Structure formats: structure tokens, C-alpha cells
Amino acid sequence: DVQLVESGGGSALAGGSVRLSCAASGFSFSSYYMSWARQAPGKGLEYVTAIDSGGGSYYPDSVKGRFSISRENAKSTVYLQMSSLKAEDTALYYCVSWTIGYWGQGTQVTVS
Question: How far apart are CA 27 and CA 41, in angstroms?
Fold first, then answer.
């Protein structure tokens, strides 16, 4: 079965850093484009970043220069390093494989 399991969320101070991890299983992880998305309270889903199978990454302006995505194919894990956190980064963060249509359960990040 396909599984995406996020970890590493929690509380952080504005200006601080948090690193999220997503452990994948049940599919050929190294071949797939992986993404992070987030949903803030009362808001819709927002694309955060993505990384392709070759390691190329993509960021919207809202997180560019502050967030960094990486992957470790040997561990079937994708990471999201978040720095210079802002209160508006508070959200439930999801690991997503759009290609195969799977999401993780989400991990909460709260910035105060």
C-alpha cells in the first residue's frame, strides 16, 4: 500500500526554523515528483513547493528564499526545511504525490 507519513511539525517562534520529513512507501519514490502543500485555518489548500525526480525544485513567491525542499531517495524521504518563519506559515502541512494521487495525514506547524 502507498503511504506518506509526515513528521517534524510543532510550534516555532517567528523567525525560527522547522524541518519536516515525509517517509514514503509502496511506490517507486525516486521516480516521482513530490510536493508539499499546506492548509491554514479557514483557508484553502496552498501549494508550497515541489521537487522532481532529478532534484529540481519549485517555489511560489510566498516561500521562495525561506523554504527548501530536498529528497533522499535511498530513504524514500522528502524534506521541507522552513526558515524565517512567519505567523502566516501556520498551517497543516501535507506531503503529496500528485502523480499517483496520494496525500499524507498532515503535520501541524504553528508559528507565534
Answer: 31
- Residue 97, judged by CB atoms within 10 A of its CB (0-12, 13-18, 19+), counts as buried
**Residue-level pLDDT at 71:** 97
Distance CA 8, CA 5 (A): 10
- Return the residue matching grid coordinates 517507486: 28
d(CA 62, CA 37): 12
Residue 96 one-letter amino acid:
V
pLDDT tens-place string over residues 32-45: 999 999 999 999 99
Helix (H, G, I), strand (E, B) or coil at 107: strand
- Rounded Cα distance between 47 and 25, Å, is 22
